Amino acid sequence: MARDKNTSDNYVRPIRRLLVGLVVLVFLALFVLWRIDSPRVERIRANLVDTFVPSFSWALVPVTKFVGMVEGFQSYQRIYEQNQELRRELRQMTAWKEAALQLEQKNAKLLDLNQVRIDPKYTYVTGVVMADSGSPFRQSVVLNVGARDGIMDGWATMDGVGLVGRISGVGENTSRVILLTDSNSRLPVSIQPSGQRAILAGDNSARPPLEFIESPELVRPGDRVVSSGDGGVFPPGLLIGQVALGPDRRLRVALSADYERLDYLRVLRTHEGEKIVDPGALIVGPEPLTPFAENTEETDTLDEEATDG
Q1: Is pLDDT of 13 > 60?
Q2: Which contacts (CB < 8 Å, 24+ apart) does range 214-221 have?
Q3: How far apart are CA 237 and CA 119, in angstroms?
Q4: More reliable by pLDDT, 120 or 35
């Protein structure tokens, strides 16, 4: 066994060396051939390429596949990076969309506020709702306008559609608004077109009831409810809502103001009416009795003189 192995090694080694030498010589010849700058040698090189390169196309298939895989991986990496960039831009656009929607809603509120038709004699101050302190027992909001803006207790507040409430508590820079839905709110109203007078009484519900209606049979659901101005609480003619029939069969008011989105409120400056101090300026009293008595005495004297004569 050892002898056979040594014999095979003796034959294989020379052949291996011969093959390696031939490969080296071929490469050297090709190198020298490709380095020679001659038209004849150029033709030889072109013939060699045309003869041998097409026959080795099968050997280039793995290289071509590998190059394609590398290019595909690079393309996938670029697509992944673009996808991540698009995701980031989409998140930014979503945030901008939310901001744009909020600005659009605020703009719509301000436009509605500017379209409210009120008596030209009333001026107003527009305030932003800073906080909503609504609870099951109290319905109110806080505005960013106060005494420095001339706000006074009792003034009416409106949103872009209808009456919201009244000022109840004024600070230097803020003020509190008691909503019409608050249980402490009582407002004289007029129901159109019948002209019936009633009291809108807040009960902490979205649709406060109507109380003390003069003739309930003349009131129908859908009738318009406005402030009556009785008692000087609010200016007359301010829109409040429409009459609706509640589940308890009571007449209630579907408020026109959007209490779910109170962003801006308009505070109406209500000027106090003129106070009459001197009642004599209106009622003329009877003439004084003293001049009348003197005239009577003079008349009696003239009558006595006439009698003596």
Answers
A1: yes
A2: 216/251, 218/194, 219/191, 219/194, 219/243, 219/251, 221/245, 221/251
A3: 9
A4: 35
220 sits in which H/E element: none
Is the pLDDT higher at 166 or at 13? 166
Residue 249, sorted as left (phi over 0), alpha (psi -120 to 50) or beta, turns out to be left
Element of type H or E holding 18: helix 2-35
- Specify which residues 266 forms β-bridges with: 126, 158
Q: Could you tell me the two tokens for 10?
A: 């003796």
CA distance from start to end of the chain: 200
At 26, list the tokens: 């071929």
Helix and strand numbers (H, E) in the chain are 4, 12
User: pLDDT tens for residues 38-48?
Assistant: 677 677 767 76
Sign, Cα dihedral of 115, 121, 127, 129: negative
- Rounded to whole angstroms, the Cα distance separating 121 from 273 reads 13
Is 0.70 topped by the overall pTM? no
